[in-house]
Amino acid sequence: MTNVVEVKVGLHCDVCIKKILKAIKKIEDIETYNVDKQLNKVIVTGNVTAEEVIRVLQKNGKNATPWEDVLRI
């Protein structure tokens, strides 16, 4: 089953983005991934959950929250 997972994460510089992309690439069953630097948003599609993506980002020292939570504020 393909899911679209969107999370908010601090994208401060190119080094941060490279670390994030490297971590995301290691997640099993992803199909595509993208980073929107302007919105501080990471988008991952595949057989993955928001919790999995957030866990991977947090292991790499990044604070991440589900995009839906951002929209509610």
Automatic annotation (TrEMBL):
Keywords: Metal-binding. InterPro entries: HMA_dom, HMA_dom_sf. GO terms for molecular function: metal ion binding. Pfam families: HMA. This is Putative heavy metal-associated domain, HMA.
